[in-house]
Amino acid sequence: MGIAQKITNGALWNFSGFILRFIIGLISSVLFVRLLGQQDYGVITFIMSGVFFAGIVVNLGLGTVMTRSIAAFRGNGEEPPLLSMLEKITLMRLVVIMLLVLIFWFSEDLAAMVNKPELGKYLPWIPLIVVSSYFQGTFKTLLTSYYEQKYLNYASVVEMVLKLGLVLAAITLDTGITGFLAALLLSQLINGFQLLHHAGKKILMHLSRYSRPVFMLRSHLKQAWHSFWVAISIRLLGRESDVLLLGLFHADIRQVAIYAVVFGLPNMIFEAFRQIIGGGLGLTAFTELVHSGNYSQLRTMYSRLIQFFMLLLLPAIIGGALIGEDLAIMLYGLEYQGIMLPMAIMFFALGWSTLNSITADLLLAMNQEKNLMRAQMGVGLLNVVVNLVVIPDYGAMGVAMSTSVANVLLTIIEMWLIHQAIRPEYPVRQILWYLVISVVMGVSVFLLPQAFYWKMLVGMLVYGGLLYAMEFQIEKGQNIHWLLNARHA
């Protein structure tokens, strides 16, 4: 099976799994926001953002090293030294985990330092959840590197259902924030053992007991260092950084809950596109193409992915900007009135920056970590500085505007770096067609006086009808054929 066939099949499984995860995730978020209220939901969102950043520190950039090393070995027709790789990476991460546990032992003092004493009793959960996330992540990386997207999506859906059930039980028993965090920890541990069992059965048990090649981790430390700072820098532009800054520097923790909805709803929608080549699938495929020297196919795959993303992104951006607030009120309640402007801004910015799921993986595959890190760190630090200025007075609105501008800027820089490296051809004409029919769809939605769910239906029908007319009446189906031919590239 060729690389393009593997990435296409993996993308189909990623997208199919995402549909189920999207439905479960949407149900979960609606129930959690409504049942917990803005205050508790703000606290939980703040703690989970801390978990996310602590997880990046524990990862040390070694997850990317693992994905790329396995892909490089397999691209050269060699068997990767998995056991040695897992042993050495785990030992390095254990040292960091122990340091985190020591730091959060003094959680009440840390909370008092930032004038948030009410958070002190919840901070010790951060290292516990980080350990379970690391346990999961190691085997997710391993299974992704062997194109096990079908099973990974199944396991992810099972975990989400389990988490939803455990959290609802905790809320029903009135265990509050502590019960919520305990339920999350338990669901991650169960999922981690599930992934370990499958990885052992499909991959690890087939390794030779007598041939134990050694993985030279020291030679990859520079790559891990760059990947670590790339992960940190990109999160300076994301929800986690914004939530931490809002929680620390705004007097009202409810601003965290408001921003979580403003960011979370469009992010949940655009996650569909990121999942198409997500979970390391894009990085794995791009790396194999780079190591095999097939730059012609690399340019073709990049162009096709850009066109496919724009086909779906443009109507989602315009439609979401128009009906986002109505959708948020219907799902989360009247507490979230008045967020149309930040919601529209976020739909545009997150839609455009979804292309980062392609550009960042391709830059990493081409050993452009340093350039990627510089771009992300520069724009990320700028975003943090601006956020620190606007948060005290403008809260969630100020953060939404600052982060949106920064994300758009970063995507433009990454696309420019790729253009300088491989000089791809862009399907400009087709993308302009998608933009025109998306604008026509937006105008029809805006002028329609009915409720927003009728607007959604009309918008989809208008876009689908115009897209059909463009592809098969004007373009004679050439674009569809061009995209589908990726399976045989």
Describe the structure.
It contains 18 helices and no strands. Helix 1 packs parallel to helix 9 and helix 8 crosses helix 15. The chain starts with a helix and ends in a 5-residue tail after the last helix. The mean pLDDT is 80. With 489 residues, the protein is mainly α.
What key attributes describe this structure?
single chain, 489 residues, mainly alpha
Write the SSE topology.
Elements: H1 3-59, H2 62-75, H3 82-104, H4 107-113, H5 125-145, H6 149-172, H7 176-202, H8 221-235, H9 239-249, H10 254-276, H11 281-292, H12 295-332, H13 340-353, H14 356-365, H15 369-422, H16 428-447, H17 452-474, H18 478-484
Helix pairs in contact: 1-3, 1-5, 1-6, 1-7, 1-8, 1-9, 1-10, 1-11, 2-5, 2-8, 2-11, 3-5, 5-7, 6-7, 8-15, 9-10, 9-15, 10-12, 10-13, 10-15, 11-14, 12-13, 12-16, 12-17, 13-15, 14-15, 16-17
